[in-house]
Design a protein that fits this description.
There is one protein chain. This protein is an all-alpha fold. The protein is 77% helix and 0% strand. It has 9 helices and no strands. The protein has helices at 2-29, 35-59, 77-100, 104-128, 141-162, 168-194, 198-208, 211-233, 242-265. It starts with a helix and ends in a 5-residue tail after the last helix.
């Protein structure tokens, strides 16, 4: 249950943050959807986030003592994760309450602060895993991969939930770019590990001999290809087929769950 809870918890938390930020940008900065649509999308992002924090807490040996993490903010990345991710969910909840009560003047400032807390939460969560004794984790690839999970799933899911069809070409171009970044960084990171110390080479061997590694690359390539086609085909059009958006989200969700499984399952300590 340990690794499974971490896989679910980290991916779901990042999806929640990416989806909320996308919803906020679409609704309040681009002003493409009304308040009711934004509320429903933000609510789904919040529910995903609650599920994420619930599964992460289950990883702890004593879940009821999780709040003790607040008392070590100066030295512990885990404590900072509790602060920023808990703060993100709290602010997202306040955003939902104010939206339901039609407190329009509070939505934008609450949303901005929630987005800032969300970005910080993704970063501090990634820093928990930059462990010096694990070569495969102790690099810039860890925070980058965590951020890419939030971006690659958050953008299409947020656009899908808000039904902002006119943004599909722009979102598709962004998605194609970020999936290319994910593919490139995966290959570069694995190559770097293979030529590093014994522990790093061991992790690279586990990755390259795992069918899941190649499956993830195929899924990312498919998502990238579909995004490129959508960006070209639907440029200037006001709608996009339901199947395209849903398929892209499914491909990326599967790819990132596989990626996090590999991340936690290919540990070779120094």
């Amino acid at each position: 249950m340990g690794d499974l809870s971490l896989i679910l918890g980290t991916v779901l938390s990042q999806v929640s943050i990416g989806t909320f930020i996308t919803t906020f940008v679409v609704a309040h900065l681009l002003k493409k959807v009304d308040g009711q649509v934004a509320f429903k999308s933000a609510l789904i992002a919040f529910i995903i986030g609650v599920l994420g924090i619930g599964t992460m807490i289950m990883h702890l040996g004593h879940p009821l003592l999780a709040m003790n993490a607040f008392f070590n903010l100066g030295r512990s990345w885990l404590s900072r994760e509790v602060l920023f991710y808990g703060g993100f969910l709290g602010l997202a909840f306040l955003y939902l309450v104010c939206s339901k009560l039609n407190k329009e003047g509070l939505l934008k400032p609450l949303g901005i602060v929630a987005c800032i807390f969300g970005v910080c939460a993704v970063f501090v969560t990634s820093m928990i895993y930059t462990v010096p004794s694990i070569v495969a984790w102790n690099s810039v690839n860890t925070p980058l991969s965590f951020a890419l999970t939030a971006i690659m799933i958050g953008i299409p899911l947020g656009v899908y939930l808000t039904n902002a069809s006119e943004l599909v070409p722009t979102a598709s171009r962004l998605l194609a770019t970020f999936t290319l970044v994910a593919i490139t960084t995966t290959l570069v990171h694995t190559s770097t590990l293979a030529s590093s110390v014994a522990a790093g080479a061991g992790s690279a061997h586990l990755l390259l001999t795992s069918p899941l590694f190649w499956m993830r690359l195929v899924l990312l390539c498919l998502a990238c290809l579909i995004s490129i086609v959508a960006a070209i085909r639907y440029k200037g059009k006001s709608n996009c087929p339901f199947n395209y958006r849903l398929i892209t989200i499914i491909l990326l969700v599967a790819a990132e769950f596989i990626g996090r499984t590999l991340f936690l399952g290919t540990i070779v300590r120094m």
